[in-house]
Design a protein that fits this description.
The structure is a single chain. The protein folds into 2 domains: about 200 residues, PmbA/TldD fold (2-Layer Sandwich); about 230 residues, no CATH class. The longest helix has 16 residues. About 20% of the residues lie in helices and about 40% in strands. Helix 1 packs across helix 2 and helix 3 runs parallel beside helix 4.
Length: about 450
């Protein structure tokens, strides 16, 4: 049996050796120790304080050019043997993969670390939640609900192709919704990797201010509007980086099909995938195949320059090597970074003149992934922009548009950006405010 104080290096090495003993050609093992905490709150009261510690084993293996991926939460020797025995038998029953490529051969050099703050593990979470709730109340809210989550991950990776590395990351994430009455609400987010860059008071204040300002909302007429979107919305309705995945493009589930090298957005737009954004949110120094992560310029000056690859898709598309974005099956961005613009939010609202300001959204649904047609429902505070100022709060409408049209109709990008991650945006994203012209607005069902 393994020692009571389990080391992920020992777990990963044991799994690698066992898979090779079972005749596997390629093996990639990721072993993660995680320590995740959560504080939930509703109507200004703490309702749950929870902590979960896990050891997760993720294994990719190939045998005779057949490929499979699996995961286990049982890091004992017997548990790993059973898990890998079942995984290998399942692999042997599969057809030969046309996408088989050997794992990239290491060793590789990685950055020293991702974004890690040891203070996250011992942060006073209840006190931080109280700060957010109190600030929301001082700003005019009657009650607040939401959650604060911390994630502490210690990761070790080893492959049969001589790649090996360790990584640590931390995240502290607050989502607060404040209510001035049952129909008037605002959202605030604070997302960081470092406790000293986490600001629950600002998130609570923003949520409370938006809630108070949204009292007495009225329906908005259908039509086309110039709309200022918050970073929360931008990171959700412009999935440029995930759509650059070679798997999404090959399967036709991307609006970037056949667009590589072409103009897809206004000149002022840039979107990057960064393995680790220094003092940003999350990130990884290596991908699931052991390749070092780096910076990929997906869109630069409005042109689609880089498709995200793992080793298999790189070979399929005639590239020399992976871009460091495995996902064994689905290449994916690690950290999404939109470029900053040259105007403040106040200037953006003033220069918009007449339009709408949307602070949050949910239930985004795509009618056609390849055309990029979608609809989404604004949630929480939204306002008319009248004569260059925030005016009447509005509600009861839906946004119906397409990503390609929006990218070519971005009028302004703010010089301030915010880190976004919550259940509508799963990949850490540094996003600005944007004003997009002529966005379609329809009446929500029941309004």
């Amino acid at each position: 049996m393994m020692s009571q104080q389990i080391k992920q290096e020992e777990v990963a090495q044991f799994a690698l050796d066992e898979a090779k003993r079972l005749g596997c050609n390629d093996v990639s093992v990721l072993c993660a120790k995680s320590n995740d905490s959560q504080v939930r709150f509703a109507n200004n009261d703490i309702t749950l304080v929870n902590n979960v510690r896990n050891i997760t084993l993720e294994v990719y293996l190939s045998k005779g050019k057949k490929r499979i991926v699996g995961s286990s939460f049982n890091p004992t020797e017997d548990g790993i043997k059973r898990f890998l025995g079942n995984l290998v038998r399942s692999c042997e029953a599969l057809p030969v993969s046309e996408d088989y490529v050997p794992l990239p051969v290491g060793p590789f050099r990685y950055k020293s670390h991702a974004n890690f703050d040891p203070n996250v593990e011992d942060a006073p979470l209840v006190e931080l939640v109280r700060q957010a709730i109190d600030e929301a109340g001082r700003a005019g809210a009657l009650r607040a609900s939401g959650s604060l989550n911390t994630e502490v991950t210690d990761l070790f990776m080893i492959t049969s192709a001589s790649a090996q590395g360790a990584d640590k990351q931390t995240q502290i994430l607050l989502n607060i919704r404040a209510f001035a009455d049952d129909n008037s609400s605002g959202q605030g987010l604070s997302c960081a990797s470092y406790v000293n860059e986490f600001h629950p008071d600002r998130a609570g204040r923003k949520a409370g201010e938006y809630a108070k300002k949204s009292l007495g909302s009225k329906l908005v007429n259908e039509g086309k509007y110039d709309i200022v979107f918050s970073p929360t919305v931008v990171s959700n309705i412009l999935p440029v980086a995930s759509s650059a995945s070679a798997f999404a493009i090959e399967s036709g589930n991307s609006f970037l099909v056949d667009k590589l090298g072409n103009k897809v957005a206004v000149d002022k737009l840039g979107v990057e995938d960064q393995g680790v954004y220094d003092r940003g949110l999350g990130g990884r120094v290596f991908d699931d195949e052991g390749m070092p992560t780096g910076t990929n310029e997906i869109v630069l000056h409005g042109s689609f320059l880089t498709m995200l690859h793992n080793s298999s898709t790189a070979k399929k598309f005639g590239k020399e090597k992976s871009t460091g974005n495995a996902g064994i099956i689905f290449p994916r961005p690690a950290t999404i970074v939109f470029n900053e613009g040259d105007v403040s939010l106040d200037e953006m609202i003033r220069e918009t003149g007449d339009g709408l300001f949307v602070t949050n959204n949910w239930y985004t649904r795509f009618q056609n992934m390849q055309s990029g047609d979608y609809s989404t429902v604004p949630r929480d505070a939204a306002f008319r922009i009248e004569d260059g100022e925030l005016g009447q709060p509005v509600a009861g409408f839906r946004l119906s548009d397409s990503i390609p049209r929006q990218l070519l109709n971005i009028e302004m990008i703010s010089n301030e950006r915010e880190w976004i991650k919550w259940w509508e945006v799963s990949t850490p994203t540094l996003a600005p405010y944007m004003m997009i012209k002529d966005v379609g607005v329809t009446r929500a069902v029941g309004s």
